[in-house]
Amino acid sequence: MITDLLHIKGFSYHGFSSGLKEDHQLDLVIIHSDHPxxxxxxxxxxxxxxxxxxxxxxxENHKIQTVVINSSNSNTNTGELGTQSVHKEIxxxxxxxxxxxxxxxxxxxxxxxxxxxITEVLNGISFAMGQLKSTSESSDTTARALADDGISIKGxxxxxxxxxxxxxxxxxxxxxxxxxxxxxxxxxxxxTDLNIEGQILQDILNDIAFNDDSTQKKSNVNxxxxxxxxxxxxxxxxTQKTGDIFDQASAKIRELxxxxxxxx
Length: 264
Prior knowledge:
This protein is an alpha+beta fold and 264 residues long. Helix content is 31%, strand content 30%.
């Protein structure tokens, strides 16, 4: 059981079955915060993909409250129909979870397939209303919903002390196990209760990617790494890229980033 998302204040989550996989297996993830979280995202595209460009645009304001991720159908470059599907997911999630559309991100992950089952995904989002939790079971279903043919899931957790308070981090990351299956996009999600401005969080991710040659490794899939920070921790808010608190937080994020990079 993967319980690494447990105990991170401000988030609820769950994995659901919307019918994309056989035998009612879990295929849809919803992650929600009780208010718009500070957010950062890195997207690596191997080719132009409007759905992933929408993801990047949604993170530009560094505020995300709801994330929708379906597995089993990546469909990363489907033209106008793909673009419309992502917008419909965002609209449905915003309506279902009472979030601003500007604070919703939708991602498609898994094997590349021809047709995107938008009706099933939209119905799954609506079905999820009122069912999100922050329990060991919901952490595990969230992870299992991201697993797919050729993709396994690993969970990671970490913590640190800032201003005498425990700050928690949890992550779920997809790992390709079968190179023969044409996987379109893999996703890594980090949740934390760190109290930090979204732009500073984005700067940390950008600095890691720019300064570490290992992040430039060749890949035949698109990759998305996102961090959501609920800012529920009571330490002094990190608003500048200076000082001991920033240095400690930056080092911990780098550590977890590398853990996801090297071990998945």
